[in-house]
Here is the input.
Amino acid sequence: MKIGTQNLNEKRKKAIKEATADVCKILASDEFKQRVLAQQWLVSCDLINGQPDVMTGQQVFDLINKKIPDYSVHPRHPWNAIAQTDPANDRVAIKPARIKNWNATDKKERANLINTIAHETMHILSGSFRDGGHGTTECPDARLVSYGIGNLVEELWLASHP
Ligand SMILES: [Zn+2]
Here is the structure.
């Protein structure tokens, strides 16, 4: 995937470019692959005929591996959220404060941008990857594609930046 930018100053452009390159590196890593394959994922928190909306690790991995479209990032303050994806236009809005995290010295703060980019990339990848109602016993973040992959990429990024 290629991520473009709109209406970002040079410093923010650089932040998105660098963080995106790191996310891509992790998405292409063997460790990431093994972790995705190791579990069954929730596509959304919906129930389909009373059953959880699931995908195998292989199905999720194949989508990530082959089909992430190019998209562009622009700064905006989405209402009540850190970021917001507009899949119809392949556009992701990220709060300027979150983009600014990249220039922090604290690695955990920097990792927040990694998590946000990986999370929003899942929404861009498929409109089915939704997360309304997440964070419940039936729909825990760790099993849901958007939150689970975002958190996994963050975890692997932190592990590779000790
Ligand atoms: Zn989301």
User: Anything to note?
Assistant: The helical segments are 10-27, 30-37, 57-66, 96-100, 107-125, 145-160.
